[in-house]
Structure formats: structure tokens, C-alpha cells
Amino acid sequence: MENCAVVIGGYVNGYSIISELYNCKVSNIILLSSKGELSNFSNKLKEKIIISSGVDSLHNTLLDLSTKYKRLILFPTSDIHLEYLVEIYEDIRSFCYVPVNVENFSSVIKKSIQYDFCDRLDVPFPKTINIKNLNEIKEVEDLMFPIIVKPDTREDLESDVFRNIIFETKDDFDKYKSTLIDFLKKGITFLISEVIPGDTNENIFAYVCCRTTNGNIHGEWVGNKLTQYPNNFGMFSSASNQAPKEIIEQGRKLVEGMNLFGIVEPEFKYDYRDGKYKLMEINLRSMMWHRVGFLDGVNLHYQQYLYGVGDSVPIYNQHRQKRIHMYYTKHEIFNLIYRKGYLKFFINNRFKGDFNTSVLYDKKDPKVFIYDFIVSLLLIFKSLFKYKKNVKKFNL
């Protein structure tokens, strides 16, 4: 029986993992995804399995794969995947490598705990309060506006709560307070932080590593999220491989101090008021722009695969000799259409690096890019049609 890599989730981050493992000659790559995800169109897979949402479908699929393969090395791509894997860990640990510290996962996934560790480890972070009940909501008065409000854990995947909201003034917050109270009554807690001023374009940096369960970091890289979509607190649109040394120092300090395993990404924002790089959040799985590290010589996912199967793990060092610009074509087009003044960023992201590349384009695996591009065009046409329909209705 052979080993296999199991990528859970077929969006951009899933495809980046597949491409890296394929490039490193991993022959058995299996994708677990839902219908319509772009990675389903890749020719780099040995097998693709459609699973439904919920822990039971994932659990049963892994059990079935265990009868065909010696060991499964898992690559989750969302927080909900991690939660499911921790839940079923005892049932799958004998045949799976689960890339997360199950002992502390339920605590470190909370942003309030992440900020507590920042305080202990002397890593800068925005002034923040954790709201757990109705009485604590008045503590917002001690913060400077604008503020950002987000669930303490990622709740928007399974409930109707927002992912984050920015309130520019106290009056804006007071108008929304009743809705926030309703969520608190449902048991959802919130992290409320002062917003670091300034546009996030080129101010978001990340440290990314793969840390094994024996505490070793064999590879790490740093990068800069150049632009985001749909707004300054959205998803990756473009990124580079450049970052200051403080990002390496602070990122490594957090990963080791919190005893985190697997692919880990602390993300920081530069605050020009005091010249510090302040933690925004720590992601415990592969993000959409992890391909930047692969393009710069650091194969973290391959390292995780080798460690999971019990082979020796090589050490990779980031090059950073050439400025890499990687972009997600769909998000760049959307930003160009919907964000005023974005043309200068589009030109920079697409043409001003020493090496410029799309996160999805691979001439040997073209269906993924083509499918995503067609979906993008359909979304644009749908948006324009809706806009024209509303204008016509208004004019009547």
C-alpha cells in the first residue's frame, strides 16, 4: 500500500497545494471537494472525490481511503476543515497525519488568545477588547474609532454572523449595537480592535512556515499582500515575496511560543504611527497566496508531506533575489472594475515585478484557469445586467 496526499478543498489554496506537490513528484494526490470547485478540473490529480458539507462525509471518506492507502497526509484549506479533523482525530490518527496541534487548537484559533500570546511574547498588536456578554459591550467606549468588529472565532461559515465590520464613529457603532447584542445572546463572542490607520495596500505582511510536531521549522518564507478583494479587509488579490526582517522574528516567536504545528501564517499590518508591525491574525492552514513561497524556493507542503510519511525533510531557504508578483486574475479584474483608482495598482501587480505570474495559470494544466476565467466573466455580466436593470427601474 502506498501513501497519499489528501487536499481538502478545491479553491485557489487547494490548487496551489496540488501544484506544489505535483511539481515535487508526489504521485498520489487526492482532492476532496464540493461540486464546481476549480481544482476539480486539474489533470494533476490521481483521484477527485466529491464530499458533502459536514463532518460525517469527511470522516467516512477518510475511513474509506484508509483501506486503499497506507497513510494519508492531510492538507486542510479552511478553518472548518481543521475543526472537523480535531473532532474526529482519535478515529483517524492511526492512518492520517493531521497538521495541527489538537491539544491547543480550540484555544489558539481564537483571536483573543492570539493577542494574549502577543502580550506575553512582546509582539505588537492593536488595542483590543474581547466581548463575551452584554455587560462588557460598554468597554468599546475606551477604544479610539474607527474600530473593527469580528467574531472571536470564524463563525460566518456556519451562521449568519458577519465576518467583520468597520465602524468609523461611535454613532455608527451605537446604531448597530442591538444586532450585536442579538448575536451575543446566541453565544457568539466578538473581538473589537482599533483599526490601524492607512490603506492596507502594501501594508500587510506574513510569515509562513511548516512546523513539525517535534518543534522543528525546516522552511519558512515571508511576503507582502499587495492588494485585497473586495476591500481593504478582504481576500488576496495580489502579493509579493518581500518583507522586513521584523516579520520573520515576530512570526517565528509566535509559532514557537504558541507551540503551533503544520502550515502556520501569522499576518501583520504596519502602523506608521509607531513604526511597528502589529499582528492581525494567525491562520493555521494554507491561505490563497501560499504559492508565493513555492515560487521563491520554499516547498512547505512538500516538507509536510515528507514529515507525515516519515521521510527525511530537506531544508529550504527563501531566495528573495527577484521581486515576485503573483496575482489572482479574477480578483484583479473585479478590483479594476469596481474600485476607483485601481488602475495604478493593477499595472504594478501585473507588470512591475521581476517575475509576474497568475496564481492559477499553468499551460500544462489549462482547464483550471479557463474555468475560473469563464466564471469571472459570467459574474461580471450578471453584475452589469443587474445594474442596468436597476437603472432602468429607477428611470421609470
Describe what you observe in this structure.
With 396 residues, the chain is α/β, with parallel strands linked by helices. The chain has helices spanning 12-23, 55-65, 79-87, 89-92, 105-108, 111-121, 170-185, 245-257, 291-295, 300-309, 329-338, 343-351, 366-395, and strands spanning 4-8, 29-33, 47-50, 72-76, 96-97, 128-131, 147-151, 165-167, 190-194, 204-211, 217-229, 235-240, 262-271, 276-283, 324-327, 355-358. It has four domains: 4-98, Rossmann fold (3-Layer(aba) Sandwich); 127-194, ATP-grasp fold, A domain (Dna Ligase, domain 1), CATH 3.30.1490.20; 204-362, D-amino Acid Aminotransferase, Chain A, domain 1, CATH 3.30.470; 367-396. The strands form three sheets. The chain has a seven-stranded mixed β-sheet with strand order 14-13-10-11-12-15-16. Mean pLDDT is 91; it is low at 387-396.
Rg estimate, integer Å = 21 Å
Largest sheet: 7 strands, mixed
CATH-defined architecture of the largest domain: 2-Layer Sandwich
CATH topology of the largest domain: D-amino Acid Aminotransferase, Chain A, domain 1
Q: What is the overall pLDDT average?
A: 91
Helix-strand pattern: EHEEHEHHEHHEEEHEEEEHEEHHEHHEH
Outline of the structure:
The chain is of the alpha/beta class. Helix 11 packs parallel to helix 13. The C terminus is likely disordered.
Which descriptors would you attach to this protein?
five-stranded parallel sheet; seven-stranded mixed sheet; single chain; D-amino Acid Aminotransferase, Chain A, domain 1; globular; 4 domains; 396 residues; Dna Ligase, domain 1; Rossmann fold
